Amino acid sequence: MSADLIIVLTAVLVAVPCALLGTLLVLRQMAMMGDAISHAVLPGIVLAFFISESLGSLTSLIGAGIFGLLTAVLVETLRNTGRVKEDSSIGIVFTALFALGVFLVSKFARDVHLDLNHVLYGEIAFAPLNSLIVGGQDLGPRSLWTLGIVTALAVGMVLLLYKELKIATFDPGLAAAVGLSPVFVHYLLMGAVSVTTVGAFDSVGAILVVAFLIVPPATAYLLTERLWTMMSLAVLLGAGSACVGYYLAAVLDVAIAGMMAVVAGGFFVLALLISPSRGLVADLLRQHRNRRSFARDLLVSKLAGLGERANEEELVRHLSWESSDFSRVLRDAMHSGLVLRPATQEVALTDKGREAACNTAVTCV
Amino acid sequence: MVDLLNDLLFDYTIRNVALGAAVLGVVGGVLGSFAILRRQGLFGDALAHATLPGVCVAFILSGAKSPAVLLSGAALSAGLGALLILTVVNRTRIKQDAALGIVLSVFFGAGTVLLTYIGRSGSGDQSGLDRFIFGQAATIVRDDVVTMGILAALALLVVALLFKEFKLLSFDPAFAASLGFPVARLNVLLTLLIVVAVIVGIQAVGVVLMAAMLIIPAAAARQWTDGLGAMVVISSLFGAFSGVSGALISATGANLPTGPLIVLCATALLVLSLFLGRSRGFLWGWIGSRQNRREALRSSDPSIPYGGGA
Predict the structure, then answer these.
(1) What is the pLDDT, as a whole number, of residue A363?
(2) Do A214 and B215 touch (CB under 8 A)?
(3) Among A124-138, A233-247, B101-115, B228-242, which is the least confidently predicted range?
(4) Residue A68 and residue A21: Cα distance in Å, rounded?
(5) CATH architecture, range B2-299
(6) Helix (H) or strand (E) holding B165
(7) Rounded to a whole number, what is the distance in Å from the CA of B155 to chain A's nearest CA?
(8) Is A109 at the interface with chain B, CB within 8 A?
């Protein structure tokens, strides 16, 4: 396998589980838990490093996994005391654990190879260099094995528990009523996020995990109303960001993981602007259309109230509009065939206008 | 201890670091109070990360590492990030948590891309820029403290002038709007003040731990009072205390990083406050329930018949 292919595959194997789990996080309004867990695993990695004296080993995966779950438990505990709000409790737990991690690194691991930059951004370019060797047999890049297992777990969980996850996300009350513990689903999801973060941090770093967890699902959320479509779109957008990001990073010779996050952000901005149902452009057009039709309706119903025919000046006075606004709306209404000008300075309803006035009026004779 | 106090007063480096940390603690504590009441605690996290591309662009354009230029760049990109978050939350159905995560990861990703670009183009080493990510309190010099002080004073002045408005906005934005206050603009202003706090602190404690200084002292202060004025004062004192004690502890030995120690001091204060806090503390709750239980046991003396007694 070429190095390029290994790097892109590694990134796609991060993007897929992140998209699936991130969709649930975004819908449950817990997106920042991804950020929190990906930072809070640092002390776990450091402690595991002290025990096993190597990075990326099974020990560090376990250490990080324990701290990921610990983060989720601490955030819940702190929130359940009722003395700290949810977002604050997330912020408190992960910054305190991260501070502990940085402290441990600086105090005890200064001389050894444990680079903070590496943990935060990872170095996906090294993915082809770390091979998994079992019994003297080179089994190929380790990142592909680790992330392949993570992806299989995430896909398996979503496929097997799709219905349960869906109910627990959209209607926790119903889920509890049919015997599906919301607490269990919460910790299942947090556990899955921890495993994914931990599996990914070594090759892509915390920041890209956060980007893949949140940005593609949020983009998909702007484009669809259905959970299944949202998950599929998020997977496609995540994998697309990985491929395009890698290509751009190679061409421009810049940070690969960062570029992938930037591309994911680019897709988001695109969807934000031009999503057919929820984009800002569609919103503006809709607003404009509504404003026009509302003004037209107002003009027509006022005219109907004045006996279906009126002097222009009188009509303007009744509407209390600026004369420039009035002539614009009048033009619009004439264009739509709702009113006509039987004489200069006179406005009258057409048959179509009468019908429209009838439709908008509260009472119609 | 006496040596430490001596150092605090006379050692140039330690005095600057402690002063800087104190300024950061005060401004973080004051703005953090509003932030956590408005459920914007994690804004500090996202906006601190969002400074990175601004720092890099400022460096690329100016070619200099003057703190004023870099901080202006940081402020601009964090401000842009803040407006983006508010726009996404107000104009789409995406909630605040996801909007924060998007700005955080995409801006920071862009920053790392620019960092590699700077490193490659050979326009000088990027080591000076790294301190924006992890913070290096030990490199704070007098000029930095002055800059931090001026920015903090400006932010605090705005808060003092608009205290009543911000208070209303934090507790009942709908009522504020009905009274005719420009709620949307006040909201933007208060969010941009968080940007100022981030700019003040980022060189000292770095991107991740800046978020802590906006949440932890305020959350600790919340345990002691129900009044906003008192909360702001206590929170700023807690922030300053964590800053100074973190700086002093890190001065006692080698390899003791200042930023994490400041945050760990603040966390210790929070844990203490959770247990001891006036009327809300766990400790008083336990003592109260023990007393109740004892009283209940005493009054349920089996020799007194049910419903009997006097």
Answers:
(1) 53
(2) no
(3) A124-138
(4) 15
(5) Orthogonal Bundle (1.10)
(6) helix B163-171
(7) 22
(8) no
Residue intervals of chain A classified under CATH 1.10.3470.10 are: 3-239
E-strand spans in chain A? Answer: 131-134, 137-141, 309-311, 339-340, 346-349
pTM assigned to the model:
0.86
In degrees and rounded to multiples of 5, residue A346 shows phi and psi of -120, 140
- A residues 231-260 closer than 8 Å to B (CB): 249, 252-255, 257-260
Decide: B188 and B43 in contact? Cβ < 8 Å: no
Single-letter amino acid code for the residue at A173: G
Average pLDDT, integer, range A54-62: 69
Q: What is the pLDDT of residues B173-232, one digit of tens each?
A: 999 999 999 999 999 999 999 999 999 888 878 887 889 999 999 999 999 998 999 999
Q: ipTM for the complex? A: 0.86
CB of A81 within 8 Å of a chain B CB? The answer is yes
> What distance in Å separates residue A99's CA from the closest CA in chain B?
4
Note whether B98 contacts A221, CB cutoff 8 Å: yes
**Distance between CA B210 and CA B259 in Å, rounded?**
9
Residues 6+ apart with CB under 8 A from B249: B256, B261, B265
Nearest-Cα distance to chain A for B244, in Å, is 17
- Would the CA dihedral through A342, A345, A346, A349 be positive or negative? positive
Q: Is A40 on the interface with B (CB under 8 A)?
A: no
Every domain of chain A with CATH number 1.10.10.10 lies at: 281-360
Give the span between the Cα atoms of A219 and A223, in whole angstroms.
7
Residue with token string 């996801």? B98
- What pLDDT shows up at residue B301? 63
Hey, are the CB atoms on B45 and A88 less than 8 Å from each other?
A: no
| Nearest-angstrom CA–CA distance, A126 and A44 | 22
More confident residue, B169 or A317: B169
Contact of A182 with chain B, judged by CB distance below 8 Å, is answered with no
Give which of A59, A71, A63 is closest to A35, Cα–Cα.
Answer: A71
- Say whether pLDDT at B310 is over 50: no
Closest residue in A to B94 (Cα) is: A218
- CATH number listed for the domain at residues A281-360: 1.10.10.10
Put simply, whether A111 touches B (Cβ < 8 Å) is no
* Sign of the torsion angle spanned by Cα atoms A320, A321, A327, A331: negative
Residue boundaries of the structural domains of chain B: 2-299
In SS3 terms, B90-119 reads as HHCCCCHHHHHHHHHHHHHHHHHHHHHHHH
Q: Is A326 on the interface with B (CB under 8 A)?
A: no
Across the interface, whether the CB atoms of A96 and B88 are under 8 A apart is answered no
Q: Is there a contact between A255 and B113 if contact means CB atoms under 8 Å apart?
A: yes
- For A206, the closest chain B residue by CA position comes to B105
A99 touches chain B (CB under 8 A): yes
Q: Is the pLDDT of residue A111 over 70?
A: no
Arch. (CATH architecture) of A3-239 = Orthogonal Bundle (1.10)
Ramachandran area for residue B236 (φ above 0: left; ψ -120 to 50: alpha; else beta): alpha
